[in-house]
Amino acid sequence: MVFLNGKFIEKNQAHISVMDRGFLFGDGVYEVIPVYNNKIFRLNAHLLRLQTGLDSVKIKNPYNLKEWGDILSKLLGFYNNQEQSIYLQISRGVSNKRKHSFSNLTPTVYIESNPLLTKTKQAFKAGFSAITQPDIRWHRCDIKSISLLANVMYSQQAKEKNVEEVILYRDNQVTEGATSNVFIIKDGTLFTHPTGVHILSGITRDLVLESARACHIPIKKVSFSMDELNAADELWISSSTREIMPITQVDGKLINRGNIGNAWSCVYSYYQSLKNA
Ligand code: PLP
Asked: pTM for the full model?
């Protein structure tokens, strides 16, 4: 079952107009929200980011917090899996003429949920690989926009190179991953790009910072260079579906001689306790 514009229906019955601005322009925003033990994880933080994104692109939020909560709970009721990944998309809606500018439309709301396939700690312990690429995206990466062409191309590259992620840099400073936030540990301190227009303020990023504080790891929200990335003691990526992943190889070079680090182990364990709280 999926949710489309107020109705719970079978996915193969869910259709939208070709005049939907999401289809024609990629004009909309989205959220991906994990569910653990049947509980939506950090729902308010996701709904707050959704609201910020909608405000940025002048789409009216069709539901209030309680209504969103009720819709998502009802949708999850159709699934048996306790671990889910909710995909929620709002586009500006359907207009009768294809025109870049817009008038007031009724937003199209689509939600689906799929089993969340989290990797085990054992799998994480092997570490993952990444490659780097210049960040060619626009200067509003803080908006979780459904226009994802650059990210799509990066992710395809990652697939073709058989690596987990593409790590992006702008003016030689690491921004984030194509679908994740990026962190390094250097001499015991955690570094991550500050929030602003060049990264998405990840909900998991906040959880990584919360976990790092619990592990008494000093945090610097400042950007770091490509050289600093290559010389890092540890390198991680984070996202709602991947949690916190240790990257032990970048562009074919080993990080921490190919081993995951102690800081990651502590932060990952604390994150697990947050999930199960
Ligand atoms: N940055 C980008 C570009 C992303 O696409 C994502 C997630 O999809 C993230 C960061 C991580 O965000 P979150 O932790 O909220 O999933």
From this structure: 0.97
Do residues 232 and 139 share a domain? yes
Say yes or no: CB of residue 203 within 6 Å of ligand 1: yes
Number of domains in the chain: 2
pLDDT value, residue 119? 85
Last residue of a domain, one of 63, 89, 115: 115
* Nearest residue to 243 via CA among 142, 122, 118, 113: 118
Beta-carbon count within 10 A of 271 CB:
20
Name the domain boundary from 93, 115, 137.
Answer: 115
From ligand 1's centre to the CA of 240, what distance in Å? 7
Mean pLDDT per 10-residue section of the chain, whose length is 277 residues: 98 98 98 96 98 98 98 95 94 97 98 92 91 98 98 98 98 98 98 98 98 98 98 98 97 96 97 92
Q: Give alpha helix (H) positions in 85-189.
A: 121-125, 149-160
Neighbours of 242 (CB within 10 A): 20
Q: Give the containing element (helix H, strand E) for 29.
A: strand 28-36
Q: Give the CATH number of the domain where residue 105 resides.
A: 3.30.470.10
- Structural domain span for residue 70: 2-115
Pocket flag, ligand 1, residue 205 (CB < 6 Å): yes
Q: Whose CA is nearest to atom 8 of ligand 1?
A: 179
